[in-house]
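Record format v2
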Amino acid sequence: DAGITQSPRHKVTETGTPVTLRCHQTENHRYMYWYRQDPGHGLRLIHYSYGVKDTDKGEVSDGYSVSRSKTEDFLLTLESATSSQTSVYFCAISEKPQGAPEAFFGQGTRLTVV
Amino acid sequence: AQSVTQPDIHITVSEGASLELRCNYSYGATPYLFWYVQSPGQGLQLLLKYFSGDTLVQGIKGFEAEFKRSQSSFNLRKPSVHWSDAAEYFCAVGMDSNYQLIWGAGTKLIIKP
């Protein structure tokens, strides 16, 4: 299995509080992605990174920010959590864009905003 | 707009029967094509991928998929399903022009004993 660790695996937080999710990889892959997964929507890209300090927005970036100060770590921050951000969040890594030849996924973080 | 459609939200198949999961995409050129599987509570695992060449690709766990350019489809097949195949299956496409994978909404496979 690819070395991807997401933390925490589960979190319950209150509306309006900041939350940071962490993705750590040991594969030295250049590209890292944050997705959210909601029933009926598949996976939707929040932000991605194509190198240290190089990040860009995805399809559903509003309310989220990211940082990548080291190759191995990609942080997702919800500045002020809202109930609409209750979801399962997945981190993915790949050597090349679009997950070609393959994107490897973490186990996910289940976030509940109450 | 670019999109990926998996028309079946749920599919129920008897164990030992054949399986076909449908995936259609909307793009101007041939994209990279993927099928991933997600077991409950788990992350996603790549089953197979198509980049170019032979339009019939073989994947892990006995799955295969066929790229049909004329139909903009990339359907996933398995000749005989096992109870352990019960999971959710996602089709995804990627393009050279950007970094994003576009995902279908998924098809949940239920296996009847």
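The interface with chain A takes residues 4, 6, 9, 32, 34, 36, 41-46, 49, 51, 90, 92, 94-96, 98-101, 103-106 of chain B (CB under 8 Å).
The CA atoms of residues 24 and 72 of chain B lie 6 Å apart.
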